[in-house]
Amino acid sequence: MGPGTLYGTIKRLLADGLIEESSDRAIDEQDGRRRRHYRLTSLGHTAAAREVEGLQSLLQRSGARNWALKSEAP
Fold first, then answer.
1. Of the candidates 49, 55, 47, which has an alpha carbon nearest to the alpha carbon of residue 17?
2. CA pair distance 52, 46, nearest whole angstrom
3. Under a CB-based contact definition with an 8 Å cutoff, are residues 21 and 38 in contact?
4. Of the candidates 65, 26, 18, which has an alpha carbon nearest to the alpha carbon of residue 46?
5. Which of 14, 35, 36, 60 is most buried, judged by most C-beta within 10 A?
6. Which residues contact 52 (CB under 8 A, 6 or more apart)?
7. Which of 19, 66, 23 is nearest to 41 (CA)?
8. Three-state secondary structure of 44-63
9. Phi/psi of residue 2, nearest 5 degrees
10. Secondary structure of the chain in the HEC alphabet?
11. Contact call for residues 56 and 40 (beta carbons, < 8 A)
């Protein structure tokens, strides 16, 4: 994903009220730059949950088995 796509997506998510900028603007230890941090809003959590439900339903209808969401990387 290129920077234009990334920042365009962030701008759209902000405009739609799905994310908000966090007041935490930590300084990157490697290059000393301030980084912006974002978090899901309540609406964003709801939208994400609906997307997960829709994807799970699609997988069930497709006959896919053993699909599970995991919070940890393998």
1. 47
2. 10
3. yes
4. 18
5. 14
6. 69
7. 19
8. HHHHHHHHHHHHHHHHHHHC
9. -85, 165
10. CCHHHHHHHHHHHHHCCCEEECCCCCECCCCCCECCCEEECHHHHHHHHHHHHHHHHHHHHHCCCCCCCCCCCC
11. no
Listed by start position, the domains of the chain span: 3-49
Half-sphere exposure of 2 (CA within 13 A, CB side): 2
Please state, in angstroms and rounded to a whole number, the distance separating the CA atoms of residues 38 and 12: 13
**pLDDT tens digits along 20-70:** 998 877 776 777 777 888 999 999 999 999 999 999 888 888 776 665 655
Rg, the chain, Cα only: 17
Q: How far apart are CA 22 and CA 7, in angstroms?
A: 16
